[in-house]
Structure formats: structure tokens, C-alpha cells
Amino acid sequence: MNILSYNLFVPLLGNIQNWYSHIDRIKKIGFEWVYINPITYPGFSGSLYATKDYYKYNPAFFTSPERIEAEKEIKDFTRYCKKNNIKLMIDLVINHSSKDCNLVEEHFDWYKLKDGQLVSPGAWDNGKWIEWGDLASFNNEKTILNENNEEIENPIWNYWRELIKHNLELGFSGFRCDAAYKVNKELWKYLISEAKKENKEIIFFAESLGCSLEDTKDLIKAGFDYVASSAKWWDYESEWFIEQYDTARENCKQIAFPSNHDTERLITEYKGNIWKLKQTFLFTAIVCDMWMITLGDEYGFYKRCNVVGGNEKDFEKINFDISEFIKDMGNYIKKNPILSNCGKIVSLDVLENIEKKKKEEELKNANNDNNDNNSEENKEEIEEIKNPIKKFYKYSLDEKDMVFIVVNTTDKKEEFDAKKFDIKEDISFDNIIDIKETIEIAPYQLKIFRV
């Protein structure tokens, strides 16, 4: 983690004049980027992600939804952020719009159609297709057929290019691209290239959670600067995370977050366990290039962010304030190059699981060959008690140096035999201990050692 980013979930704040004080506050914590969810005029469902007009604005946030008045307020705000060395990232939603979007009437042929009707996007959830009926999917292919059934260049590509250019003129410095993996990859390559002609420092972040590893690779090839990390879901022993992490770190950068508007609040997920929350905060921050939290995460907000009808009444009372913890954590990581860069990770638990699978396969084959009636006994030979202590190495970018990271995943004190790991010094974020042959790890603690 080299950069701290903050999701200013503006429905919790209302009018743009209320946003300023939070910029001052999060600047003191150490955040350098602010990400803002869609502020465009929403359609009939009220969802922030169901745009009705890309050049009008949500009346919940501005004095007027009309372009001139709202954009004056936006420019004032972006100038204030720039003055305070804060860069702004805005959502770019080009996979779909609301079904009552002005483009439906003006450019019906820009949409995906089935039997002459608008097609809604959706997603699979536990084997069931969930369709978002308030949305209509755009046809973002490079060419379309005109009224004479002739293939022509799709004019929507220029529309999106101009929309991006317009947002750059408003003062935004980056784009979080919603449902990026569902959009034509050649379109992304074109848009990113065109935008960087305007300003080569502009960043594009692909919202890629839930997509396949192949789709992630395609997004990286399309030119995205960042892809989303799934670090918050890693159990410290499954192979999938290492594969995803390596794919991203070797080709682009990653953004990790403990929770966002698409997930439950982490403190809710952890049933109020602040120690487990701090562990996840620290872990997700040491395996990414940019780390992001959402407004309220530092205050112990329990309610999930509401993108449909959320408002200032959802701003909860402060249950706790870990702003200083975040500030100290950020400073600590930035002072430790191995932690702040995405060097290779070698998980001892992953290696043990791979070895265990090999043994299971060998026993299975042996039992099939010998018709062994004692197969259950053989299985017991490789059954192991699940170790609550997880261990992995994190390397420097040149792989010449490394640290040893130990995580207690339980609510009890745990011990591990430190003799075989050649541990030299405890360089953890907090609660530094002396090195002994047996080291005690507090509940939900993440320890970092120099080896």
C-alpha cells in the first residue's frame, strides 16, 4: 500500500457543502485520494447506479440538478480538494443506464435489444439469475448495424469519450469503472488511451470483483491502472488468492478494501469484533497498492451503504473512532518497503494444503490398486487438526529480502514454535514482543517478523 483512498459515500452527507469538512478530516488521517459514487441524475428506481441523464445531477447533492448550477458547485469542490492535495476519483457507469434514461428515447439503437425490447443486466447468485429490472444494458460493441443493415462504427464510443473528457474538465483525476468486466475490452482500451492523451496521470480502476481470472487478465491488457483485490475474503490458506494476487501484481496495481457499498460493513460481518476488524484492515493494506475504506468504517457504522434512497438520516452515531489507528497503520506501512509494495507471497498453509492433496491422491490411487479395506485408517494418517495460526512470507520486489507474517485467526491466545523460522526481530505494527522459542500470539493479532 503506497496510497490511502477514502470512499466519500455522499448519500450519508447530502448537499455538497457538507462534504468539505470531511476532506479536512480525512486529509489529517493521511488519505490522498477520495472516491465518490455516481452523482448524476438517477432514474425511477433512485439507484445511484441507474443514470437517467449523464449531464444532469442528483438533486440530493446539489442546489439544482441543472448542469450549469451543479457543475459550478462541483468545480468549487474539486478546486478545494486540489488545494489540499487530494485527488478525486468518480464512478464511470457505462455498462448500463436506467430504463428511463434520456438516451433510451434519443438513441434506442445504442442499447442491447431482444425482440425489440431493452435487455436488463443481471448476475448469478447461488445458481439463480438475478435481473436488475430498472436497468438497460448498452450495446458497446465497436460496430453496429444502421437502418439500412450496414455495419458502421458505434457512435456510443465517442459519447463515452466526451463524457470522460467532460469529467476531467470538472476536476476529476480518476475513474472507478463500474462492472468493468461486462464492458467491451476494446472500448476500454480506446477510452483509456484517449483519456491519457488529455492527461497521462489519469487513473482507471476496474471494478472487477466476481469476474473470472481470464476477465481480469483482459482488463489488465485493456490498460487499466488498477484492478480490485479480493484480499478481504482470503482465509490465509486457499490457493485462489495467491493466483489472483500474482496475476495482478505482475501486470498492474491493486486496490483492496475491507468493505464497500457492495458488501456488509466489516464490523457487522464480524459481529462487533474490533480486533478482527483491525486485523483485516492491516492485512488488506499490506497486500495492495491502494487501500480504500468507506465513510463510516472508521466510526464503527453498522448499516450497509444504501445506493437506493440512502440519505443523511443513515449517518449513524459514532460507536468508536479508529482514525488514529488508520493514520498510524498507514505511516507504519509506508516506512516498510516490503509491506508497502506488492512483492511475492509464499503461504506455508497453501503449500501444506497442496502437499496434503498430493498425499490424498496417492492414497486414493493406492487404495484403488490394492482394494485396501483399511482406507479409512489411511485417511486418518493425513488428517490434521486445523491450525488456527496462519503463516506466510512476503518478499521485497527484487525478492532479496522478506518478512515472516503470522496471523491468529481465533479469539484465543495461540502459540507457535518459532525455532525453525529463523526469526530475528518483531517488527509488528504494535505490541512488540521479545523473540523466544515459543511465541504467543494474542487473539486476532497479525504479527510481522524480520527473518
TrEMBL record:
Superkingdom classification of source: Bacteria
Cited SUPFAM superfamilies: (Trans)glycosidases
Domain Glycosyl hydrolase family 13 catalytic positions: 18-333
A Pfam family this chain is assigned to: hDGE_amylase
Name of this chain's protein: Alpha-amylase
Region (Disordered): 362-381
